Amino acid sequence: MIEKLIKFFERPIEQNLVDKAITEKLPDGKVVDEVYRARWVWYHTILAIEIAFTNVLLIAILLVLALK
To answer: What's the pTM?
Structure first.
């Protein structure tokens, strides 16, 4: 089971449409590094937004409980 998952995620870029679309726009030589950086930035941006939203909700709950 785990071997199948590893093979699925290790498939070549040519078989992954999203990676292929990204790498076609990049200059040669920096392909893997640039794709990794782009994914890293987007992942952490979304994560930061989610954490900020959670903090706002926690502060709102704290205020509601403090005012009651």
So the answer is: 0.51
